[in-house]
Write a structure and sequence with these properties.
The protein is α+β, with helices and mostly antiparallel strands and about 120 residues long. Helices cover about 25% and strands about 25% of the residues. Strands 4-3-2-1-5 form a five-stranded antiparallel beta sheet. Strand 1 and strand 2 form a beta hairpin. The longest helix has 12 residues. The two termini are about 25 Å apart.
């Protein structure tokens, strides 16, 4: 299982204004939050990074934030934050890849001066 420190490192990755991060996840003790998404991308209009949740298929529970800290502290999971529920988060994929393999890649890329 990925630690909260690992996920913080992933969201700290420099997107260079052209990449994105997409994480598919579920909350193990809450069926309401099954097949949820979180990510980071660059807003083409403002050229700023956006951190986001997509919690339901209908799009009614989608949230954008200006930082990972604000996103991770937002109480969008039945009045709890991502940080508070992290022990129950099950990562299904990161960027369409196996979570553990992708985490290792992000950590490796973060340790280099260039990302890819």
């Amino acid at each position: 299982m990925a630690s909260f420190e690992d996920i913080t490192k992933i969201f700290g990755f420099n997107l260079e204004k052209k990449y994105c991060i997409e994480i598919l996840f579920s909350i193990s003790d809450n069926l309401k939050f099954n097949n949820c998404w979180m990510g980071k991308m660059t807003d083409k209009k403002t050229n700023q990074d956006i951190y986001w949740f997509g919690l339901t298929k209908d799009g009614k529970n989608a949230y954008d934030y200006e930082s990972f800290e604000k996103m991770s502290e937002a109480k969008v999971f039945d009045e709890k934050s991502l940080k508070e529920i992290w022990g129950n988060v099950e990562l299904d994929s990161i960027d369409g890849c196996d979570p553990e393999e992708r985490i290792a890649c992000y950590i490796k890329w973060n340790s280099k001066t260039t990302n890819f």
